[in-house]
Amino acid sequence: MDIMAYANFNIIDWHAISAGIDTKTAWQEWQETNFIWPEGEKAPVDKIPAMARRRMSSLSKLAVQTALTLVQEQEVDYLIFASRHGELTRTCALLEDILKGEDASPMAFSQSVHNTAAGLFTITAKKAIPVTSIAAGENTFHSALIEAAAYLSDNSNHRVLVIDFDEPLPSHYQEFEQQEYQGYAFGLILSGGDDFTLQWNKKPSIKPDVMPHGLQCISKLVGSHSQWMIESSSTQWTWTHK
């Protein structure tokens, strides 16, 4: 017998960006055109000061820009940055330098850790807010939501900012890439409540994920769905919106 667990929360606001897509209307067009990605476009990074921007990877820019956009008008009490692969592209570049006999850049090394984007955001925004960085394989996005719901259950008057962000695997790992997408960041401000219910149970799927879970969620939000299901190889995630 399957055991299903659940979590409740409200979505106060959300924002997502990718190259050529930076508004809810643009995301809706992406969803309606069967997830066709714009070509030759760049993601906006105007919220990030130029000095800080030059030191960030393309992935960190996406995450920090999204977070800065959402905290412009909303106060948050807790941050959760979630990325399946994190700064793997930067790590691969460091390893290539070492294999060539070159010295690894200390700055690049310091920003190759999984909580790079979270630290860069708190520094850039000048906000000393508690933060957690999460990596949980294909279930990374939903694991971040569970973390947020657990925090809100103990802090019902607080708000949590969740940033889900990722990019395709670098060329050295392309044989392991099973999804087609481009770099993105998806941010949600959550509060306590029951507008949304997320249920999950262990139920292996024979269907491979076509996109990261965060991108699948965006497609459902812009499509105004009241219920949807997202599956990984180990877990079935069911969303219900009142």
UniProtKB/TrEMBL annotation:
Q: Residue ranges of the Beta-ketoacyl synthase-like N-terminal domain?
A: 27-239
Single annotated GO MF: acyltransferase activity
Which named protein is this?
3-oxoacyl-ACP synthase
UniProt organism field? Aliivibrio finisterrensis
